[in-house]
Amino acid sequence: MSIKTRFAPSPTGYLHIGGARTALFSWLYARKHGGRFVLRIEDTDLERSTAESVNAILEGMTWMGLEYDEGPFFQTQRFDRYAEIIQQLLDSGHAYRCYCSKEELEAMREEQMANKQKPRYDGRCLEREAPREGVEPVIRFRNPREGEVVIDDLVRGRVVFKNSELDDLIIARSDGSPTYNLTVVVDDMEMGISYVIRGDDHLNNTPRQMNIMKALGYEPPKYAHVPMILGDDGKRLSKRHGAVSVMQYRDEGFLPEALINYLVRLGWSHGDQEIFSLEEMIELFEVENINNSASAFNTSKLVWLNQHYIKESSPEHIAHHLSFHLGNLGIDPSEGPDILEVIKANQERAKTLVEMAQNIVFFYKEFEAFEEKAAKKNLKADAAPALEALRAGLAECEWSDEAIHALVERTAEELELKMGKVAQPLRVAATGGGISPPIDVTVRLIGRERTIERIGRALEYIEKSAD
RNA sequence: GCUCCCAUCGUCUAGCGGUCUAGGACUCCGCCCUCUCACGGCGGCAACAGGGGUUCGAGUCCCCUUGGGAGUACCA
Q1: CA distances from A415 to A130, A391, A436 (A)
Q2: ipTM at complex level
Q3: Spatial distance from the CA of A436 to the C1' of B34 (Å)
Q4: For A148-188, what is each residue's pLDDT tens digit?
Q5: What is the distance, to the nearest Å, from the Cα of residue A20 to the centroid of all Cα atoms in its chain?
Q6: Any catalytic annotation for residue A464?
Q7: Each residue of A345-387: pLDDT tens digit?
Q8: In sequence order, which residues have a C-beta less than 8 Å from that of residue A414 and are 6 or more positions away?
Q9: Helix segments in A157-298, DSSP class H
């Protein structure tokens, strides 16, 4: 049988980190085995599902590069089919109508809780002969009363549930719309899903779903329940933890491959290896190596990976993702040096793309003022001779890293100053601050005109400060 | 409450009965490199939750306790 996996989010918010990881695992599994990966939108909850959420999920998938082979399918477009199945279940006696009121159910639950029992529907409507006047019934699946359901989970191992612990769950609301446990089963069967890789929180639903499948005469797929992702504090991931949306990581300057690499290592491992290319992940991914305990999201490790990928990627690739952040800062790369050159000079000194964008503003825009601390330290009267010599030298020297470097060195020698006493004032003069790539590269990229002009500005600053 | 799941450094993890005086990575702290910031190099701190078994031998198997988590909806 061919391998098919799926990612089935409900569109009630953005694509979050936990969902992104199960999507990644499912995607990897399909890719590794030459199978297909299906995207299915579980939007049966009309109240909470939104079109914006659908778009956000699609956008997140695209940004991460998790392309799907089939879908997106929408469950709301399959209501007719679900209705057929529900009727079929009704006809075969596997389902029945329930006329119980909310109050009645609530009372039942309270009583069971009081008796230290697990609250569950007792099946009283099964005995009901006639419909209740004026009540639109829900439809319940008639769960077996005896025996047990065994899940041979690919990551959890053998998990057993007694049927006596389960109850007759609602598969259609009183308005006739189907509910989650029914639609999942129908779709997983009819879409030919062979491996269901999903969050741990669904483990409890699995025996119910397996029972429905059995009633419908189908073999259940293989299941792999992956543990949850916790926040930095070890608590359940929520909005309190800053970024939980995949797109927020883009906004904060992360490369998709860094996020993917981080996510694949969260709850999965291949020995001591930390860095995985997409090809390696696909080749090495094994469901058996998925951890069974929940793991906490650790932003600093993600940052480290991001820095790694910024360092290792081609300038072209960085440029592609950086343009978004440049735009956010109102920078037009055509108004300055070649962006690829600037990126090359900054790849080793940025942890995020946001940081990189901020660091290269001075290549493209005039800075407002010299950064106070750096200026106070480096733009002092004793720096003036060096700056003047540099201004003169830069006006006529060959415009290359080597020549500029030689000029700075020569200036230091002639004035009997340490390199730092020459290079650093020049850096502050040229960039406005005390941080930049090597001074020769920095100056070369800023350009002759601009550098000379800025040195003049620095000399004015020194003069003014002397008063 | 009940059912199910989980438990190695602060965090992510390796470990699938003896090779563990428990390895790697991130973080943090030193040192080196150095025109700034970084990169890089070297070194350091730091863990088998507790208690019972099983076994010649347990981080590794079993049980209990404790502590986390999930579910218990006409949500998914």
Answers
A1: 105, 14, 24
A2: 0.95
A3: 14
A4: 999 999 999 999 999 999 999 999 999 999 999 999 999 99
A5: 6
A6: no
A7: 999 999 999 999 999 999 999 999 999 999 999 999 999 999 9
A8: A389
A9: 180-190, 206-216, 246-251, 256-265, 278-284
Distance CA(A230)–CA(A234), nearest Å, equals 5
Copy the structure tokens of residue A186: 């129908």
3-class secondary structure, A408: helix
Structure token digits, residue A135: 């009540």
Protein-to-nucleotide distance from the CA of A281 to the C1' of B7, whole angstroms: 27
- Cα separation of A122 and A167, whole Å? 7
Characterise A152 by phi-psi region: left (phi > 0), alpha (psi -120 to 50), beta (else): beta
pLDDT given for residue A132 in this prediction: 86
Residue A152: CB less than 7 A from any atom in strand B? no
Handedness of CA A362, A367, A372, A378 (dihedral sign): positive
Please name the residue ranges forming H helices in A269-400: 278-284, 299-312, 315-328, 339-346, 353-359, 361-364, 372-378, 384-396
| Assigned token pair, A458 | 């620095």
